[in-house]
Design a protein that fits this description.
Helix content: 25-40%
CATH architecture of the largest domain: Alpha-Beta Complex
Order of helices and strands: HEHEHHEEEHHHHHEEHHEEHEEH
Radius of gyration: 20 Å
Largest sheet: 6 strands, mixed
Number of strands: 11
CATH class of the largest domain: Alpha Beta
Oligomer: single chain
CATH superfamily of the largest domain: inorganic pyrophosphatase (n-terminal core)
Distance between the termini: 49 Å
Number of domains: 2
Strand order of the largest sheet: 6-7-8-9-11-10
Strand content: 15-25%
Structural class: alpha/beta
Number of helices: 13
């Protein structure tokens, strides 16, 4: 596993991982395919190098649709004691320290060195060791290069997990974050034996009845602004529960309003936890939604971002949609 250039991985990060005997891995809350695939691939790769590895993935974190990825790695959610006993914690695909999926958050482990491997543009580097690259397609692309730099043997199992992350975060290599580098990484992973048709079936064509019912809600609640530039949908707490889903199942549904021709911004408002309204922002044709999400304390990528506000769907959507309309109007003026 050394055909790709690996000098881009910071030397201090490589040496910190080499020196550690016991390593804890954690991603972000409500982990998506990139987060789970990155953690799983990292876990198997580090174990192959003789490391003792534990994973923080609290019960209920993973959506039903993605449990097949998590279940492909023989892990049990680590306890606080197991994490505290480690020499290094690697936080993967996590833009903010407050978003790390750890019981007690990072504050509960003040003496544990943190390595931060992430591709979010808003990550300011909260670790002792940081590799943050907002131009990368996915965390999985970066994890591949870390494992390559450590001379890890690429197995079919590791490759499948990492390929899932690259594929999902580029939406099947269709988004602007798809680069020659990400395609090279995907090629290397495919060469290791990934069953791509089977993996894509699990990612895209394996809805449960509840997940399908939730899609009905999203389609039914989708609206478009009069000028056609803004599309949004909503799912409140009761609608999500009535469909048989929960907060972990909310993410890709933003692709419903996003799929409408001619829009510049799509937003999904969801209330996975009562009173907490999560916004998924997506930009089309180069529209930067990160700056919009940051107005509400959010973050992410330039064309894919998120934020959470307290309130009801009606209250939050009214406020955010008004801001989004003004934001789009400002963008039009500045680009004339």
């Amino acid at each position: 596993m050394n055909r790709m250039e690996t000098g881009v991985v910071p030397a201090d990060l490589r040496e910190a991982i080499r020196a550690a005997r016991r390593i804890a891995l954690a991603g972000h809350v409500t982990p998506d395919a990139d987060c789970i695939g990155s953690i799983g691939g990292f876990c198997l790769g580090l174990r192959g190098l003789g490391k003792q590895v534990v994973v923080s993935m609290p019960p209920g974190s993973v959506s039903r649709k993605l449990t097949f990825l998590a279940d492909s790695v023989p892990i049990a959610p680590a306890s606080r004691e197991e994490i505290a006993a480690c020499d290094l914690l690697i936080a993967v695909d996590t833009a903010k320290a407050a978003r790390v999926n750890l019981e007690g958050k990072l504050e509960a482990y003040p003496s544990l060195p943190v390595a931060n491997v992430d591709h979010h543009a808003t990550n300011i580097g909260f670790g002792r060791y940081n590799w943050v690259d907002g131009d990368r397609s996915s965390a999985a692309e970066m994890v591949y290069e870390v494992l390559a730099a450590l001379d890890c043997r690429m197995t079919r199992e590791i490759a499948t997990l990492l390929y899932a992350g690259v594929h999902a975060d580029t939406q099947g290599f269709s988004l602007p974050n798809t680069t020659p580098r990400s395609l090279d990484v995907a090629h290397e992973l495919a060469q290791a034996g990934v069953d791509i048709p089977h993996l894509c079936e699990r990612l895209h064509r394996s809805f449960s009845k509840g997940e399908f019912e939730l899609l009905r809600v999203i389609y039914g609640n989708t609206r478009v602004s009069d000028d056609g530039a803004l599309a949004w949908s909503t799912a409140d707490f009761d609608e999500i529960r009535a469909a048989g889903c929960n907060a972990a199942d909310i993410d890709d549904q933003v692709n419903v309003p996003r799929s409408i021709e001619g829009i510049s911004i799509a937003i999904l408002f969801s209330e996975g936890n009562r009173g907490k309204i999560r916004m998924n922002f997506r930009g089309e044709r180069g529209t930067d939604v990160l700056a919009l999400a940051q107005r509400f304390g959010g973050g992410g990528h330039h064309e894919s971002a998120g934020a959470i506000l307290d309130g009801t769907i009606a209250e939050v959507s009214q406020r955010v949609l008004a801001e989004a309309r003004g934001y789009l109007s400002d963008l039009r003026r500045t680009t004339r």
